[in-house]
Amino acid sequence: MVVALDVGGTGAKCALVRPDGTVVHAERHPTGAERGPDAVVGTILDVAEGLADRARADGLTPRALGVVVPGVIDEAAGVAVWSANVGFRDVPLRKLAVERLGLPTALGHDVRAGGLAEARLGAGRGTRHVLFVAVGTGIAAAHVVDGSAAVGAHGAAGEIGHILVRPCGPRCGCGRVGCLEAVASAAAIGRRYAELSGTPGSTAAEVVERAVAGEELAREVWSSAVEALADGLATGQALFDVQTIVLGGGLVRAGRHLFDPLRTALRERMTFHREPRLVAATLGDEAGCLGAALLALDSVEDR
Ligand SMILES: [Zn+2]
Predict the structure, then answer these.
(1) How far is the CA of 179 from the centre of ligand 1 (A)?
(2) How far is CA 206 from CA 170, 199, 212, 277, in A?
(3) Is 0.90 surpassed by the pTM of this model?
(4) Are the C-beta atoms of residues 224 and 183 closer than 8 Å to each other?
(5) Is residue 290 a part of any domain in this protein?
(6) Domain check: are 273 and 133 in the same one?
(7) Cβ atoms 65, 295 nearer than 8 A
(8) Which residues fall inside 5 Å of ion ligand 1, going by CB?
(9) Residue 36 CA, ligand 1 centroid: distance in Å
(10) Which is an annotated Pfam family here (predicted)?
(11) CA 74 to ligand 1 centroid distance, Å
(12) Structural domains of the chain, count
């Protein structure tokens, strides 16, 4: 049994998980990032300790703790280097957790952990080379080979959202112009449609709905986002040569209205590269928490 926490900007998904990935108990807590980083760390440690106590009360033995957070994470050092969403800057979270709970602790990145879970327990199960791409407010990825996600030299691997796809495109949150995320994230699609149509507050889901209903402007916005996403995925495939690309995040709810044109656009971009299988994530918003559990398990046993 391991204790797993996926701490996001607004909420934390927390669970007790068996080695086979079965969730025995799950709870959710608000992150309360507005209270400052110290209070958030306090909540993380309280919730983790509460879950470990709960396991013991049920006669189970918690063997390790896994915590994942967004941002730049130095997994080897166990330090949350930079995480704007939860206000962390150089927080030695692993050390603090070990001191408080006395359990071996793994610290990881939320999207990389989600990709790890999809590759091992979800849509990528049974394939050795998986690229997990989460398309929501932003776009981020995890490259998983043989059940391990590449971390990078600086804890920042997988930032596929900042591949340049439209040199004359809109400005990205990172400051540069034309990043994939600035064109094809759910947030960018809603924003683009709002700009062109003069309908403020449009969402990507509404754009898809209107496009399917045959509205010309929505079709244009949707198809240019799909084309940009295909450019990003084709770059991913050129770099990683995977068997399976697992798409997760809010945009996946568009179903075949996303996958049909995206598969076609991706196929058009393949020359000598092999076309990857393109599938939807199956673990939903539990992926990060399950990934945290896998990191915890990996830290105490040889798979
Ligand atoms: Zn960017």
Answers:
(1) 5
(2) 21, 11, 10, 27
(3) yes
(4) yes
(5) no
(6) yes
(7) no
(8) 162, 172, 174, 179
(9) 26
(10) ROK
(11) 21
(12) 2
Distance (angstroms) between ligand 1 centre and the Cα of 232 equals 12
CA of 182 to the centre of ligand 1 (A): 7
Do 152 and 103 have their domain in common? no
Residue 213 maps to which CATH number?
A: 3.30.420.40
Residue 98 domain-assigned (yes or no): yes
- Do residues 116 and 125 lie in contact, with contact meaning Cβ atoms separated by under 8 Å? no
In a domain, 117, yes or no: no
287 lies in a domain?
no
Q: What are 14's strand-pairing partners?
A: 5, 27
Q: Which residues pair with 149 in a beta bridge?
A: 144
Over residues 13-65, the pLDDT tens digits come to 999 999 999 999 999 999 999 999 999 999 999 999 999 999 999 999 999 99
Whole-number Å distance, alpha carbon 126 to ligand 1 midpoint, is 32
Distance from the alpha carbon of residue 112 to the mean position of ligand 1, in angstroms: 18
- If asked whether residues 44 and 150 sit together in one domain, one would say no
- Give the separation between CA 268 and CA 270, rounded to whole angstroms: 6
If you measure from the C-alpha of residue 224 to the centroid of ligand 1, how many angstroms do you get, rounded to a whole number? 18
Cα maximum dimension of the chain: 61
Kindly state whether residues 78 and 176 are assigned to the same domain: no
State in Å: Cα 110 to ligand 1 middle.
18
Measured between alpha carbons, how far is residue 244 from residues 151, 160, 233, 240, 292 in Å? 19, 16, 11, 11, 22
Residue 302 has pLDDT above 70, yes or no: no
Q: Are residues 102 and 184 in the same domain?
A: no
